[in-house]
Design brief:
heterodimer; A: alpha/beta; Rossmann fold; Alpha-Beta Plaits; 6-stranded mixed β-sheet; 36% helix; globular; B: 377 residues; alpha/beta; abc type-2 transporter like fold; 14 helices; 4 strands
Chain lengths: 335, 377
């Protein structure tokens, strides 16, 4: 769906292909350290693709390679129909990029920042004026054109940075941890903007380590230790845990309870969730009673045990544990 | 070749400079302050030296002799000494720098044709000034001596005596031997180097530190556009500073540009390009503004001040240091500047220095652009 006010013009070569981003065997080494290890995936046009993983997993390195900021050690990538290795300049013309640093000039006013980035992208006067009005409205900064960027709060800076990054109406948008250091209300607003862009046909590639944000994505790729260990829609990923039952347990001494449960052959993973913890079991029938019996038998007071539908976090804890086990077996270093 | 998209960066750079009152103040205020400081305070001229006279003879002739010192600009009479012990007191308290001691019987001995001794006691704490002052005193005494000799000869029945060698000093280019005239070209070099190197290095490193460089790098802006956009504003500011120094130099010290303004402009731009190259190079080597500032100060200010011939003549330096001065670009720029401003010389007078400046500009801007390009890709 395209919005009449912003006729994004994707590259014609995209018409033959449904994918905005195609990555194959992408690898980046820094010395002997392999930051990104042979990853491959596709991002469909117009979808919100979440790239999820712990800090240092290789999220930023991947996004920087896709934006032409860093050249890959091996592998290929196509962005908007252009090769990231041989056509970095063409790639730059079809993408917008925003990092968690927001990259604004704090000593310039809101309008001056917009004018600068508009100029850098070669917008003519008439288009710049139109896009400036759009960006101000989008960021909720109307009437604040002449305020120094320095004086804006985190959420405003974030939305202004997004506005500046897409002044040239790119069909593909890369966001590198765009919600870092921003309050929950602003995060919520920001995701509304991302959906809005996605509905207008913009492909959004976003890295995050917030699980709730990952739930908002059409597709999620989980990167861990430089390797892509899972990819799929959030519900698909959750179904990977169908062979387990997940229970949420409230009891008086969760740490000891988790230790005890972990020693049982019929449990898989335990992880803390606030004041409670989650435990996954390989047996499904009667598992709830077993948990109660075990903990009560050890003299612990159990308040509540309930089988729950797995969250993404449960999925990732399982996937990461499996990956660690796999690497231990193959003798590879665990990150 | 497509049109270069430089204006957005240039405009932004000017806006930032204007916003940052400290930098703006630094760029505008420092040259003025330095001109006044160096022009007035850093002077090698020795004028109005305070002199005390201990005239033990108290004759008409001794007074006339002493008066010879005060008709020039070089000496000012500050005290008349009555007792021997006062000499110490005057020199110790720095009430006088030099004391002229005329012995009793000065006039009588001269009349008899005897050689008389005149003592000059000088405060040697400032060796340079003392040497200069002694030189002045010597000249005055020699002239007086010659005059007496000529008079004696005439009275003895000779013809008017003419000295075998007539000393006719002519000082070219700076006839009043004013230090300011010598220093102003040096000051231009100094200020240009400092503004070009420091401001360029900071302007680029700041963007790397803040992450805005990354944002520019994902845009279609090419490295050449970025380099030009970053350097043009500082070139303009530096040229304005040069003009300001020339105008101030004229108003305050009467230094007139004798040579071609166009040639001065060309040489200045060449020197600036090299300086901007140094600034860019620094910005590719370090990551923080603090470090960039320190390195920029060390490589620009100190060598330009000490090793360029700005203040200290290169030929007076030990040979190893003299060798080092050959890699200081300001050395060549200074020769060219002094030639153009003070002598009104054309390019033929300093073509070798000119070639050095061209080489220096090409090499530094080339190397730094290459490094920056690599950094951007």
């Amino acid at each position: 769906m395209q919005h009449p006010e912003s006729p994004f013009s994707p590259d014609p070569t995209l018409a033959h292909d449904d994918h905005a981003v195609l990555v194959h065997g992408l690898t980046r080494k820094f010395g002997t350290f392999v930051a990104v290890d042979d990853i491959g995936f596709r991002v469909r046009r117009g979808e919100v693709f979440g790239f999820l993983g712990p800090n240092g997993a290789g999220k930023s390195t991947t996004i920087r390679m896709l934006c032409g900021l860093l050249s890959p050690t091996a592998g290929t990538g196509m962005v908007g129909g252009y090769d990231i290795c041989t056509q970095p300049d063409e790639v730059k013309s079809v993408i917008g990029y925003m990092s968690q640093r927001f990259s604004l000039y704090e000593d310039l006013t809101v309008a001056q920042n917009i004018e600068f980035y508009g100029g850098v992208y070669g917008l003519d006067e008439e288009r710049l004026e139109r896009r400036k009005r759009w960006a101000l409205e989008m960021a909720g900064l109307e009437g604040k054109e002449n305020v120094l960027t320095h004086a804006l709060s985190g959420g405003w800076k974030q939305r202004l940075a997004l506005g500046c990054a897409i002044l040239h109406e790119p069909p593909i948008l890369f966001l590198d941890e765009p919600t870092g250091g921003v309050d929950p209300v602003s995060r919520r607003k920001f995701w509304d903007l991302i959906y809005d862009l996605s509905h207008r046909g913009v492909t959004v590639f976003v890295t995050t380590h917030y699980m709730d944000e990952a739930e908002h994505c059409n597709t999620i790729g989980l990167i861990y230790g430089g390797r892509l260990i899972a990819i799929g829609a959030p519900t698909e990923l959750k179904h990977q845990l169908d062979r387990f039952a997940i229970f949420e347990v409230h009891c008086e001494n969760p740490v000891d309870a988790m230790d005890l449960l972990r020693q049982q052959p019929w449990t898989a993973e335990t992880s803390i969730f606030g004041s409670a913890f989650h435990v996954s079991t390989t047996v499904i029938e009667g598992a709830e009673d077993r948990i109660r019996a075990l903990l009560t038998g050890a003299g612990m007071h159990v308040t509540h045990v309930e089988r729950i539908f797995p969250s993404l976090e449960d999925v990732f804890i399982h996937l990461i544990a499996e990956e660690d086990a796999r690497r231990e077996k193959t003798g590879a270093m665990t990150p | 070749m497509t049109r270069l998209n430089i204006m957005p960066i240039v405009r932004k750079e000017f806006r930032q400079i204007r916003r940052d009152k400290r930098v703006l103040g630094l760029l505008l205020f420092i040259p003025g302050l330095m001109l006044v400081m160096f022009g007035y305070a850093l002077t090698f001229d020795v004028k109005h030296t305070s002199m005390a006279v201990f005239d033990q003879d108290r004759s008409r002739q001794s007074r006339e002799f002493a008066e010879r010192f005060f008709v020039t600009e070089q000496f000012v009479r500050v005290a008349t000494v009555e007792r021997e012990s006062d000499i110490n007191r005057l020199l110790d308290s720095e009430a006088a720098c030099i004391v002229l001691v005329i012995r009793r019987d000065f006039a009588r001995d001269l009349a008899r044709g005897n050689t008389v001794s005149v003592q000059v006691v000088v405060d040697g704490a400032n060796a340079n000034a003392a040497a200069t002052v002694l030189g002045y005193a010597n000249t005055i005494i020699q002239q007086y001596s010659s005059a007496i000799l000529a008079g004696t000869f005439l009275r003895a029945g000779g013809r008017t005596l003419s000295m075998p060698i007539d000393y006719q000093p002519r000082v070219w280019y700076n006839p009043e031997l004013e230090s300011a005239k010598f220093l102003i070209p040096g000051l231009i070099a100094f200020i240009l180097m400092v503004t070009a190197v420091i401001s360029t290095a900071l302007a680029v490193v700041r963007e790397r530190e803040l992450g805005t460089m990354e944002q520019i790098m994902v845009s279609p802006v090419r490295p050449v556009e970025l380099i030009l956009g970053k350097t043009i504003p500082y070139t303009i500011i530096s040229l304005v500073a040069t003009l300001a120094i020339l105008v101030l130099g004229y108003l305050l010290f009467g230094v007139v540009l004798k040579g071609s303004a166009f040639l001065l402009f060309i040489v200045t731009v060449l020197f600036l390009v090299g300086g901007l190259g140094v600034g860019l190079l620094i910005s590719t080597l370090v990551e923080t503004q603090q470090l960039a500032f320190m390195i920029a100060v060390i490589v620009s200010m100190l060598p330009t001040f000490i090793l360029s011939g700005f203040v200290f003549p290169i030929q007076n330096m030990p040979v190893p240091i003299q060798v080092i001065t050959y890699i200081i670009p300001a050395r060549y720029f200074l020769v060219a500047l002094r030639a153009i401003i003070l002598k009104g010389a054309g390019i033929s007078a300093f073509w070798d220095q000119f070639l050095f400046l061209v080489g220096y500009a090409v090499i530094l801007l080339g190397v730094s652009s290459m490094r920056l390009r690599k950094l951007l890709h």
